[in-house]
Amino acid sequence: QVQLVESGGGLVQTGDSLRLSCAASGRTFSGIAMGWFRQTPDKEREFVSCINWISGRTYSADSLEGRFIISRDNAKNTMYLQMNRLRPEDTAVYYCAADYNSGSDFSTPATADQYDFWGQGTQVTVSS
Fold this sequence. Notes:
0% of the residues lie in helices and 50% in strands. It is an all-beta fold. The strands form 2 sheets. Strands 2, 4, 5, 6, 9, 10 and 11 form a 7-stranded mixed sheet that branches. Strands 1-3-8-7 form a 4-stranded antiparallel sheet, with no helix packed on it. Strand 7 (68-73) and strand 8 (78-83) form a beta hairpin. The radius of gyration is 13 Å and the shape is globular. The termini are far apart.
């Protein structure tokens, strides 16, 4: 198993930025995809962005309009989500996840059931 721990969430205002981090331990990231999802109490977990750990290829949901940037530091086993121009509708619990033996081509949205390991989530609240 891999352990994933998110951090960096908080309360911000519309237009602000946050950087979320996901620190991994227990296993290496070799051969996996990593992703960010978000969830509100009345919705299913929503895809945000994903990254091929080795190549760095990324894909993000079109609905984000380029506001969020996913990245990783493989030496630190840490993934990031830079969140810019935040809006109230971005309010959610944000989760990082790992997808082992991913068949993704990183050109379409992922679904939560593709992912094998999850962090505990970090709350992001954007006030209007």
